[in-house]
UniProtKB/TrEMBL annotation:
PROSITE patterns: PROKAR_LIPOPROTEIN. This is Uncharacterized protein. It comes from Geomonas propionica. It comes from the Bacteria. Keywords: Signal. Residues 1-22 form the signal peptide.
Length: 620
């Protein structure tokens, strides 16, 4: 037993012994309790009954939890006792209520604002005379004024007196979820300076509140995914919310909110796309599906004066489920190779039951977190019931997979990092992470495994960007809305003008508008994929096909499988095509490039996973 554990055990034992002689509370019987001041009793009395009681939310003994907390061990002798939070125990007697216990309609300490008796919204007197903190960090309270970019905060108006939404109360720093909270605070969901929360007051806009505020998201989920028509903004409230713990979890027990399958409300619900139910990952897809798709582009009637239809950002779920992306460069019934064009752009119905089309695109990544992964041919020994087959692909890859060892902080950074590679990726991609050590992928393995795939995808997107500029005089700036600018037009006040005439002079007629639709569609695909940094992994085959078709149409306004020639002309060093793609068995990952073939070219073109020979036609 460590000295620290022995110390805590001795403290509890001492308190219990003292409590036995002191009794619990006063000798008076329970009377009518009021919420006014109730006399305190010796704190040792609390340990008599609660020394072994289990906190149902954290799963830890309440008293042992408390004596390890900063409320008890603050180093300056100012112990925050049980009654400082729950109210005096003079009328308790072990069976009656405390003034603040949250039972029978009474307030709990959090709701009663007891936390703020010590932790005030003040940044001037941060410590009292004994150097005990009396104010909490700026990120909790930061009520800014005015427009522009300002940090968000944790405790907005709707989260006042709601500390237990994120903190286990008896030991806020070491209780259940502490590591997760630390990871979350630096993540894309919790960092107060992140653009999705700091760039503007998103709660003022009904189109934004469902994903850019915690309150708006919870309302969206609880409504059965009904689009908001009003905001919850009130005059004088300038607080900007991050996505707090309460967004995905119910309370400090950290139970995950229950959800139903999500229907993507493209174009304000005019073109909805129903997704399959994928358990806890339903929570993720609601905000990672984008806001527009090709139906929005198809609804435009005049492409001589059309603002770019923006996909929105980080639409990884929409890509994984093949719901976003412009596909209409030709008729969907056109035959490509041995299948119809439609089947090469829609998910296979067996990947996730009751979704997609028979003979469509299969995906092991889409199976992850579902029972469809069991028996998958990539690793039949590993993909068995109970392993990586629950909670959907988002949770499996970005948080913590089922049936395997826990990741640090249960993955609450949401990053595909060394832990994610070791827990999930390596089970199929072992030979691509050859410097894996003791079950955890090294940074070098992560770099070679993921970064190289990201690079060849970026190279292909660069080819789309180059074609837009050289053939259509359209420049792309991913950092400035509306992203696509007309190089044929003069500058206005030193700034480029956005593209409005997508027909490039063909006019508002059938031919011009068909051309304009497909040109905007290619630009849409570029923006959609660029704004999802993990697109190359979320839907590898589908994304490659969107890129291929965009290039194939842009180079001569028809699909004629000319991408390899176009790529070679663009960069003959980067894009080289040998007699075949690989030697060896790609399925077994025992391959080498067939010289002079380059990795960049194998990303653009299709090839046999068994023989390494190029597809005919070359489309992936």
């Amino acid at each position: 037993m460590s000295k620290r554990v022995f110390k805590y055990s001795a403290v509890i034992a001492s308190l219990l012994i003292t409590a036995v002689f002191a009794g619990c509370g006063t000798s008076n019987k329970e009377g009518n309790l009021t919420l006014g001041d109730v006399a305190k009793v010796s704190e040792t009395a609390c340990a008599q009954c609660h020394g072994s009681s289990i906190n149902s939310q954290s799963g830890m003994p309440i008293y042992s939890e408390y004596v390890q907390s900063k409320h008890f061990l603050n180093g300056v002798g100012e112990v925050v006792g049980c009654q400082d939070c729950h109210g005096g125990g003079a009328q308790h007697n072990g069976v009656g209520p405390l003034p603040y216990d949250g039972k029978d309609g009474r307030l709990n300490p959090d709701q009663a604002g007891k936390c703020f008796g010590c932790h005030k919204n003040s940044f001037l007197g941060l410590f009292n005379a004994n150097k005990v903190p009396t104010a909490i960090q700026k990120a909790h309270f930061y009520n800014i004024t005015g427009a522009g970019t300002h940090d968000a905060m944790y405790v907005t108006k709707n989260f006042e007196n709601g500390c237990t939404a994120c903190h286990e109360p008896h030991n806020p720093l070491l209780g259940k979820g502490a590591a997760e909270r630390s990871a979350w605070a630096t993540s894309g969901h919790g960092k107060v300076s992140n653009a999705p929360f700091a760039d503007e007051d998103f709660k003022e806009n009904t189109s934004c509140i469902r994903c850019h505020t915690s309150t708006g998201y919870v309302n969206f989920l609880n409504s059965g995914w009904t689009l908001p028509t009003t905001t919850w903004a009130t005059a004088g409230d300038n607080g900007r919310e991050v996505l707090t713990c309460r967004t995905c979890h119910v309370n400090d027990s950290f139970a995950v909110r229950g959800t139903t399958a999500f229907k993507i409300p493209y174009n304000n619900g005019n073109f909805p796309k129903q997704l399959p139910s994928i358990g806890e990952s339903n929570i993720c897809v609601a905000c990672h599906s984008g806001r527009e798709n090709e139906d929005t582009i198809a609804a435009v009637t005049n492409f001589t004066n059309a603002t770019f239809k923006n996909s929105h950002y980080k639409a990884g779920a929409a890509l994984m489920y093949l719901s976003a992306g412009f596909r209409s460069f030709t008729s969907l019934d056109t035959v490509v190779g041995t299948s119809t064009y439609r089947k090469t752009l829609y998910p296979d119905s067996t990947s996730v039951p009751a979704y997609g089309v028979t003979g469509g695109v299969t995906s092991t990544h889409r199976k992850l977190g579902t029972t469809a992964i069991n028996g998958d041919g990539h690793n039949t020994a590993f993909f068995v019931p109970g392993v990586l087959d629950d909670n959907g692909p988002c949770v499996t890859c970005h948080l913590n997979a089922s049936g395997v060892a826990d990741r640090p902080a249960h993955g609450h950074t949401w990053k595909i990092n060394q832990d994610a590679v070791a827990q999930v990726c390596i089970n199929c991609h072992a030979s691509e992470t050859t410097d894996n050590v003791t079950g955890f992928a090294s940074q070098a393995a992560l770099d070679t495994f993921l970064e190289e795939q990201a690079l060849v995808s970026e190279n292909a997107l660069g080819l789309i960007q180059n074609l837009l500029l050289t053939k259509y005089k359209i420049s792309y700036n991913p950092d400035v809305y509306p992203y696509f600018y007309d190089e044929n037009l003069p500058l206005v006040n030193g700034s480029k003008q956005q593209v409005k005439d997508w027909t490039r002079g063909l006019g508002n007629n059938a031919a011009g508008n068909l051309f304009g639709k497909r040109l905007m569609g290619a630009a849409f695909n570029l923006q959609l994929i660029v704004k999802d940094p993990g697109a190359f992994a979320h839907a590898r085959t589908y994304v490659r096909r969107l890129i291929y078709d965009s290039i194939d149409w842009l180079d001569n306004n028809k699909l004629d499988f000319s991408v390899s020639a176009t790529a070679t002309a663009y960069d003959p060093v980067l894009y080289q095509k040998g007699a075949q793609a690989f030697t060896g068995d790609v399925t077994l990952l025992t391959t080498t490039l067939y010289a002079p073939t380059t990795d960049a070219m194998t990303y653009l073109l299709g090839y046999s996973r068994g023989t390494g020979k190029w597809n005919n036609p070359e489309r992936p």
